[in-house]
Automatic annotation (TrEMBL):
Transmembrane segments: none annotated. This is Plastocyanin-like domain-containing protein. One of its GO terms (molecular function) is oxidoreductase activity. The keyword Signal does not apply. The keyword Membrane does not apply. Keywords: Glycoprotein. Belongs to the multicopper oxidase family. InterPro entries: Cu-oxidase_2nd, Cu-oxidase_C, Cu-oxidase_fam, Cupredoxin, CuRO_3_AO-like. It comes from the Eukaryota. Residues 21-109, 189-326 form the Plastocyanin-like domain.
Length: 357
């Protein structure tokens, strides 16, 4: 378990020059390999103000869950009696709860912490799910005036495609692997972007991973899914396992429109938040649950969709989404630099100019 915490300024003083409590911003990131965490500060409430670049409604929390690959910012006001307080980070949804602590020290404190650190949530899924739903976009903040943040009305755009992705843990050739829609990713000898750019056959095949779960036996493949530039897509992550999943999409932010327990069906759309959900690049999926996102495919390229659990990612729980534009123009995608290092089957090739600029 590893968490990074950045705060400014470094000195933590309880009183400002005007006699009021000073307020500090903490940015908390879960940069671990396998575990969701809970963050809390003894005796203090945290005002959430930002999640992965989205300014949020400034709700107050006594503790916050941060899942693999996620970051958020909170404001802490030094308005408590001057003494030392525990800062606590503990694991979530694990059979053994791991805890680490730090000390929040008021500059005029002469009282050290004593007793056990404050407890937090452990394996309660509903508690975490309800907290995740309470995190909303602040539609009046941080937008180019006169348009507020959230003036891009994602909930009013018709989706052109639904992709359902289910994680699994098959044994393939007698070895533990992890998969998406039954396909466990096998890394080729040539980077996929180079193979696509130079049109090198035999490295990958579009359609090597289906749009919906394959409940048969898992298999190895260099899985690449085709997608059209400027499509607006609904992606549903379905998790039938007993562990929390965390998914990341390279090159994009997306809108987390819904999450709930059980099996996703088209009727689940009636519970979507189509007004003020946050835009982010990593989302959690709770055990035996689903999470749905909306994503505008406005970035041409070969983009990795992967588990943020590094063991699962390394053993195949990932694939690539090829977002394609036939225009082959600088307006959509910059060319590969002339001095790029080429390897695999692309060795010895020469970059070519684009058709239009």
């Amino acid at each position: 378990m590893l968490v990074t915490i950045f705060h400014s300024p470094m000195a933590f003083s309880s009183m400002g020059e005007d006699g009021t409590g000073k307020t500090y911003r903490f940015r908390i990131s879960n940069v671990g390999l396998a575990t969701s965490i809970n963050f809390r500060i003894q005796g203090h409430t945290m005002k959430l103000v930002e999640v992965e670049g989205s300014h949020t409604l400034q709700n107050a929390y006594s503790s916050l869950d941060i899942h693999l690959g996620q970051s958020l910012s909170v404001l802490i006001t030094a308005d408590q009696p001057p003494k030392d307080y525990y800062i606590v980070v503990s694991s979530r949804f694990t059979s053994r709860i791991l805890t680490t602590t730090a000390i929040l020290h008021y500059s005029n404190s002469f009282t050290r912490v004593f007793g056990p650190p404050p407890g937090g949530p452990t394996t309660q899924i509903d508690w975490s799910l309800n907290q995740a739903r309470s995190i909303r976009w602040n539609l009046t903040a941080s937008g180019p005036r006169p348009n507020p943040q959230g003036s891009y009305h994602y909930g009013m755009i018709q989706t052109s495609r639904t992709i359902m992705l289910a994680n699994s843990a098959p044994f393939i050739n007698g070895k533990q692997r992890y998969a998406v829609n039954g396909v466990s990713f096998f890394r080729p000898d040539t980077p996929l972007k180079l193979a696509d750019y130079f049109n090198i056959g035999g490295v990958f095949n579009l359609g090597s991973i289906p749009d919906s779960p394959n409940w048969g036996n898992g298999y190895l493949a260099t899985s690449v899914m085709a997608a059209n530039f400027r499509a607006f897509v609904e992606i549903v992550f379905q998790n039938w396992e007993d562990t929390v999943q965390s998914w990341h999409i390279d090159g994009y932010s997306f809108f987390v429109v819904g999450m709930d327990g059980g099996q996703w069906t088209p009727a689940s759309r009636s519970r979507y938040n189509l007004r003020d959900t946050v835009a982010r690049c990593t989302t959690q999926v709770y055990p035996k649950s689903w999470t749905a996102i909306y994503i505008a495919l406005d970035n041409v390229g070969m983009w990795n969709i992967r588990s943020e659990n590094w063991a699962r990612q390394y053993l195949g729980q990932q694939f690539y989404l090829r977002v394609y534009s036939p225009a082959n123009s600088w307006r959509d995608e910059y060319p590969i630099p002339k001095n790029a290092l080429l390897c695999g089957r692309a060795s010895g090739r020469h970059t070519r100019p684009l058709l239009s600029q």
